[in-house]
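Bit of a strange request maybe. I'm writing a small parser for structure token strings and I need a real example to test against, not something I typed by hand. Could someone generate the tokens for this chain?
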Amino acid sequence: MFILLFLLLVLGVPSGFIYLAYWFPKKLGYIRLGRILSSTLFSVFALVIAYISLEDEFFTKGDANELLLEQNIVLHDNFALKDNESTSGIGDSYQKFILEISAKDKARIISEIKNSSNFRTLETPAANDVNFSLLTNSKYKSGVFSEDYETEYSYKRVFFKFIRKDYAPTYRVVSISKGLNELTFELY
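Reply from user aminoacidic:
Good idea to test on real output. This should exercise your parser:
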């Protein structure tokens, strides 16, 4: 039942608008105008659907830089976008991309993570888990929370951005691989 309603909304509403864009001018005697309006409206809906379904193909290095800059990570050297995948639904989204970065950028970012005031090492208890107990404190119910830590295979910077009460926060994880010159960004 839900799928039928969804298809009706996704296909029926645009089809109705396209038909009305043709029908009204036709009734007034402007058949050519109706064809132009309905063709233009069809093209707009087709482009929107194509953009939504091919969103991963439109992801650029500039988009990657912008997302990393929000976590105070700047790449000075050239990098390559190895992989990008994203999914989204109503009120939910996920994006993951992997960048091949230079050894110089990798060393600088690892140094920034290690020298941050909230850095935890492997020896720190629960270093593989974000300290979610801090998030239950009332003072962390708004604003930004970040934490840097080391795991067996990577250095991580975790970022929480609270939007407002009763809304899911933005949760981002940047991982720098210890063995490879790769940076992985995940947005939940």
